[in-house]
Design goal:
five-stranded antiparallel β-sheet, 472 residues, Alpha-Beta Plaits, alpha+beta, binds flavin-adenine dinucleotide, globular, Uridine Diphospho-n-acetylenolpyruvylglucosamine Reductase, domain 2
């Protein structure tokens, strides 16, 4: 295992016993798990972080359960890790200090879809893809679309400020969260934000909570902004012999004023992984762009075609119907599973640079791979400069080289004007690199904000901020 949880103080046996008793009494035994075998699956998420172990698991199904759990946890000084579908890729749901894992998937109701005001009210455990489909059945649209949409939850998306292929045109989760109901450590319930599209009353606490990675409050309800469903979607796939040519085409598409709803880039190693998993991709292609236009720009396919051809595209395929559209998406949709099969271990980074710097970032990734000898592949949401660089390795002897590769990637990203994480969050897996991007003063300010919400540091401890502030 490459990444281990930091060593944090764990709750004492006697405080755990007392908390267990109080939770059983207030919530009922069926909502409180304590058998180590039953608790052990709650130790991991979809990152490569080796878990701490949950001492207790609380299965919440009502906001009151959350308030009671956080009240008891604070009283007995037990750390609490909120957890939803555990598809997170930075260790956010891993219980780094043990204690209570608070499972939020039982709050899974879509409470309201309001067509007249373009608003929905949801509980946090609703699966994102199910929500998207429910909204679309009403002729409306919820744009945030993490590729994990059929498994992850809206609450997890809000905590991580999830993005996805459509973020370039439509923005990320934060752009759609109007209001939140949340519970603070200690059990206080707060209503934050608004239901209107405009509103500047007080500080923007909603925005602060979105992306807070379960460290400030536990969400029990969210009010989300919806859009009318866009008319018409045009999907095209362009093949290139080289990823640098493909990424330069991305720059030209953006410079031409075309804002595709998706602009996905796959490099040569990613295409090899996809081919190895049985998906047919033209053998000549060393890179692929999947481009989707919607609404008014759906009529701009010809312009798009001439731009990609000016960058020596080998071939351009345009979907003529839904079936063909789904086929053009096959390579993109298969790549997460396909890349997992390429090595025993895979670590996916999600760095972001200004889109015009993507060719430079890809060149850096190649250089780092050559320096360290670690296999890698890269794909991502090229329109907004968000590249998923996956490091692949088979045995523990390569771990030091992988860690060197990750640090070199983080440094190169920041040097190119970028940021460490576009959508997965810092969690446990990237906290050592935070000082590469943020100053000591800024990290200290954020720690102070955390203290205002959670004085004893019990809510999702060990996440986001490194133990020491010096640059690594
Ligand atoms: C195949 C695959 C593809 C992916 N693609 C994308 C992508 O395109 N874009 C993207 O952004 N991410 C992507 N991800 C990452 C992941 O799906 C997202 O981070 C997602 O938002 C996590 O949701 P979850 O329900 O699984 O949350 P979890 O992993 O359970 O938790 C994530 C964080 O949220 C906190 N949390 C959970 N519920 C609450 C709550 N109610 N209140 C407060 N905090 C809470 C947890 O403590 C943790 O810190 C992908 C993951 C996989 C496995």
């Amino acid at each position: 295992m490459l990444l281990r949880t930091p060593s944090l103080p764990r709750p004492t046996a006697s405080s755990l016993d007392q908390a267990h008793l109080a939770l059983d009494r207030r919530l009922g035994c069926s909502k409180v798990l304590a058998d180590p075998d039953i608790c052990s699956p709650y130790a991991r998420d979809d990152s490569d972080v080796d878990g701490g172990v949950a001492d207790l698991v609380v299965l919440a199904s009502h906001r009151d359960d959350v308030a009671i759990a956080l009240e008891i946890a604070e009283r007995f000084e037990i750390p609490v890790t909120p957890r939803a579908a555990a598809t997170g890729r930075s260790g956010g749901a891993v219980p780094a200090a043990g204690g209570i894992v608070l499972v939020m998937t039982g709050l899974a109701q879509i409470k309201e879809i309001d067509r007249r005001n373009l608003v929905a009210v949801v509980q946090p455990g609703v699966i994102t893809g199910e929500f998207q489909r429910a909204v679309e059945a009403e002729g409306l649209f919820y744009p945030p679309d993490p590729s994990s949409a059929d498994a992850c939850t809206l609450g997890g998306n809000i905590a991580e400020n999830a993005g996805g292929p459509r973020a370039f045109k439509y923005g990320v989760t934060r752009d759609y969260v109007l209001g939140l109901e949340g519970v603070l450590m200690g059990g206080q319930l707060l209503n934050i934000g608004r239901r209107t599209s405009k509103g500047v009353t007080g500080y923007d606490v909603t925005s602060l909570l979105v992306g807070s990675e379960g460290t400030l409050a536990v969400f029990t309800e969210a009010t989300l902004r919806l859009l009318p469903k866009p008319e018409g979607i045009a999907t095209a796939l362009a093949l290139f012999d080289d990823v640098i040519a493909a990424s330069e085409a991305v720059g030209s598409i953006v410079a031409a004023g075309l804002i595709p709803r998706c602009l996905e880039l796959l490099d040569d190693a990613t295409l090899d992984a996809v081919r190895a998993s049985g998906v047919a991709v033209d053998r000549r292609a060393g890179a692929l762009l999947l481009i989707e236009l919607d609404g008014e720009s759906a009529g701009s396919l010809e312009r798009l075609g001439s731009i990609v051809h000016s960058h020596d595209a080998l071939d351009v395929l345009v979907a003529q119907d839904e079936g063909q559209r789904a086929r053009l998406w096959t390579a993109r949709k298969s790549l997460s599973i396909a890349s997992r099969k390429m090595a025993r271990h895979k670590l996916s980074e999600d760095v972001v640079v200004p889109p015009s710097r993507i060719p430079a970032l890809l060149a850096e990734v190649r250089r780092i791979g050559l320096d360290t000898g670690v296999r890698h592949l890269a794909y991502g949401h090229a329109g907004d400069g968000n590249l998923h660089v996956n490091w692949l390795w088979d045995d523990a002897s390569q771990e030091a080289a992988v860690l060197r590769s990750i640090e070199a990637l983080m440094r190169a990203t920041v040097a190119l004007g970028g940021t460490l994480s576009g959508e997965h969050g810092i969690g446990l897996s990237k906290l050592a690199y935070l000082p590469i991007e943020q100053s000591e003063a800024l990290i200290a300010l954020q720690r102070d904000i955390k203290k205002v919400f959670d004085q004893k540091g019990l809510l999702n401890p060990g996440k986001i901020f490194p133990a020491l502030h010096h640059a690594c």
